[in-house]
Amino acid sequence: MPDTAHNETIASAVSAPHSLDPSSSRLYSHASAPKASHKVDNEDGIELTELPQAETLSSKDPGPSVDAESASASAGASVVPEKGAYKMLANIQFFALCWTLFLAGWNDGTTGPLLSRIQSVYNVGYTIVSLIFISNCVGFVVGSVSNIWFTDKLGFGKTIVLGSVTQVVAYCLQAPAPPFPLFVIAYCLNGFGIALQDAQANGYVASYKDNGAAKMGMLHAVYGAGALAAPLVATQFAQLHHWSFHYLTSLGVALSNAVILAAVFRFKRQEECLAQIGEGASEQGASDDSKYRQIFRLKELHLLAFFAFVYVGIEVTLGGWIVTYAKEVRGGGESSGYISAGFFGGLMLGRVTLSWLNKAVGERLVIFLYVLLAIGLELVIWLVPSLIGGAVAVSIVGLLLGPVYPIVMNEAGRILPRWLLTGCIGWIAGFGQTGSAVLPFMTGAIAGKSGIKSLQPLLVGMMGLLVVLWAMIPRGHSRAD
User: Fold this and answer.
1) Where does the Major facilitator superfamily (MFS) profile domain start and stop, copy by copy (predicted)?
2) For FRET with 53, which of 24, 232, 332, 366 sits at 20 to 30 Å CA-CA?
């Protein structure tokens, strides 16, 4: 039947299947190039035109073929997991850096509750026991200066692991309660290790282009969590015969930190690690000067570093000596160590809960607000003879001072050249940690002559200096790239 033959010819032309090219994984039709139509004669002598089978028909078809739809779905599926993998790896990296800051906070929160016990065990006064702060300071300064060299020669991954291993060695020395000189030297090693890790962690997070300010706040909130947890444990060990076994707890945290850093960052350079999470590479400087020369030419860097020096000094002095102050001036007992935990707990909460206020007021103005309120509370602690009232006020001071350090790091990220950022932040953090030794040592030396009651006037004066220094730092609305 002529109609039947005619229909079959057209049907065969229309139904020419599409298939997947096994060699190129691209879709193609059986007639990938359009065929010229030609005439054929059937048995009835009727002229028929053979239709092109491939792209001519498919191009007229408004709907996608089944294979095209599946290929599109496959392409979409490959994009989503890639973004998900970026996010998961970024979270793992951020957790590793947070654990590093937890250990730094743990270390700073340990000293206060153990200070009186260290004095009694080694039979030393305020001035001599303050040498542990000086030793810590020396380690921080050496670590901060050498951090720039280590970052260039070894890279981010190796430098941060080196810092973590140095801390492990320090806690191994402290755990058996060695002679006082060796105990002091261990603080130097500890400071060196923390300086390297602190610089690398802060520089890494400051390089984030996506939500960096919030992550910086979270990073330092975890520092506050470590500083909160340590006094809760150290206060218990301070009352035991084997008081130095507290450093075995610190050793466990330090070992886990070293393992996590090595496993997550795999000794790679910062650019490689950032590329793994979809962050672009940092800008490179055009100058041929050495990094040391470029860094130390920056006036803004030195203002930020000196601000950090005073701030960290206040933070560690208050957290470290407030326990002794509560015992000797306010008549507190052995449980006074928990006041230090209250201060660092407030520090942690401030970094977590006050970010909305930082945005509402503006990070520059809000620091003036926080510091002025903290000065008012310090006057309450100084002038009102109440142990409980003083403990509550100390916690609120921690709450107010908490956001200050992350804001300083954010400001550094806005002002300083990005290609020098890790080295600059290393210097800011290290010089700041110098304050954690100098101010507590000054407090101990003054207390040796005038008594620990001199703590509050010193803190009020240092907080007043913070206001002046912050007014001198330029606004971070532009970057010196």
Assistant:
1) 93-479
2) 24
